[in-house]
Amino acid sequence: MNKKRSDNFESRAEQSRAEQSRAEQSRADNIDILKALCAFLIVCIHVPFPGKVGAYFTTLTRVAVPVFFMITGYFYSDTVARHKEKRQIQKILYLVVEANVLFFIWNIALNVLRRDSIITYVQEIFTGKSILKFLALNESPLAGHLWYLGAILYVLVIVLLVDKPNCRKLLYYLTPVLLSADLAFGKYSLLIFHQEFPYILVRNFLCVGIPYFCIGNLIREKRCSEKWNRKILQVLIVVFTITSLAERFVLVSAGLNATRDHYLSTTFLAICLFVYALKSNWCNKGMSVIGRKYSTWLYIIHPIFITVFSIVVGKLGLKSIYRCIAPIVVYCATLVFLIILQKVKMWSYVKI
Fold first, then answer.
1. Contact call for residues 313 and 330 (beta carbons, < 8 A)
2. What's the pLDDT tens digit per position in 55-98?
3. DSSP run (H or E) holding 230
4. Which of 187, 290, 306, 343 is most exposed by smallest CB count within 10 Å?
5. What distance in Å separates the CA atoms of residue 201 and residue 211, rounded to the nearest whole number?
6. Residue of 205, 185, 200, 209 whose CA lies nearest to 130
7. Are 228 and 271 in contact (CB under 8 A)?
């Protein structure tokens, strides 16, 4: 009798572990799908849809970068459990170097094609001011969008250095302060201070990276995805979508729409979207593969395709048509290039 009970207990425990494993895999797949979607939203930021519709849609695309920081924060406890914190930092450092070297070569190639002076270009980008911006505010002199890589690198280093319960709590308490600073000196600077500040003062590891990393970490720690109802999240996503658009409309109408395109509602929309993805049961293997394998480099190299298409389309006289589908074209072309590149690499390894 005792043996039968023991067998039943072990069977239930095994079944529970299997269910937990399936849930974790489903959650990971959902996050990969979310990464693929956010990569597209980032493309839309850098090559937006035209007109007022495009401008308002760009308002919504601003959730993408916060979501990426939250994803890193959410999975950080797994990184710690596997003792791979330093390895993760090393990996991001390599990406920072590779991405910046790539865009240095690309910019040199563009200067050669345009017959501009390479020496002048090098002198302009490698100044004391540009290096200071790069080191202090994550602003790459080679490609503006690479600030994210520098920011996530700094965040991971800071979190590793203060990896004690009390210090981690301090970062949590600082989160609303840093987010408020982003709004005060960013999107709402004209309203509060009657002047605009350089957006790189807040678009960096401090006012964006740390807060959203901490939010992602807290969502995992407090198991927020288990506490929220999916239907409530759907309603909140709709509400914060509307309020984001309303914020832009009010600020534009009042002539107070500062350059930094990050609204009060952006934070709440990003959080709701992220938690909704954790709770959902999406099933799209193609999108999951895109998010897992290609989203990072898609984010890194898509501006190259933006430049290439703008040159080609300009010469062909197809600007008006291209503008309407530019984000889709750039996203798909970049993705196809990365898939082909991966297959060539695999073929090369096989040949070797």
1. no
2. 999 999 999 999 999 999 999 999 999 999 999 999 999 999 99
3. helix 230-253
4. 343
5. 15
6. 200
7. no
- Tell me which DSSP letter residue 291 carries: I
Distance CA 227, CA 91 (A): 34
pTM (two decimals): 0.91
Exposure string over 270-305, b if 16+ CB within 10 A, otherwise e: bbbbbbbbbbbeeeeeebbebbbebbbbbbbbbbbb
> What is the DSSP track for 68-89?
HHHHHHHTHHHHHHTT-HHHHH
CA 91 to chain CA mean position, Å: 17
Tokens of 114: 């345009």
Can you read off the two tokens belonging to residue 55? Answer: 């401008």
SS3 19: helix
Angstrom distance (rounded) from CA 325 to CA 337: 18
Q: Is the model's pLDDT at 17 over the cut of 60?
A: no
Six-digit token string for 15 = 């079944």
Nearest to 105 by CA among 145, 146, 142: 142
- 329: Cβ contacts below 8 Å, ≥ 6 apart: 309, 322
Spatial contact of 287 and 32, defined as CB atoms under 8 Å apart: yes
Show the CA angle centred on residue 295, arms to residues 293 and 299, nearest 5°: 145
Q: What would the pLDDT profile of 279-336 be if each residue is shown by its tens digit?
A: 988 888 899 999 999 999 999 999 999 999 999 998 888 888 999 999 999 999 999 9
**Cα angle 133-104-326, degrees, rounded to a multiple of 5:** 95
Alpha-carbon Rg for the chain, nearest whole angstrom, is 22
- Cβ-based neighbours of 330, under 8 Å, separated by 6 or more: 43, 47, 302, 305, 306, 309
**pLDDT higher than threshold 60 for residue 16:** no
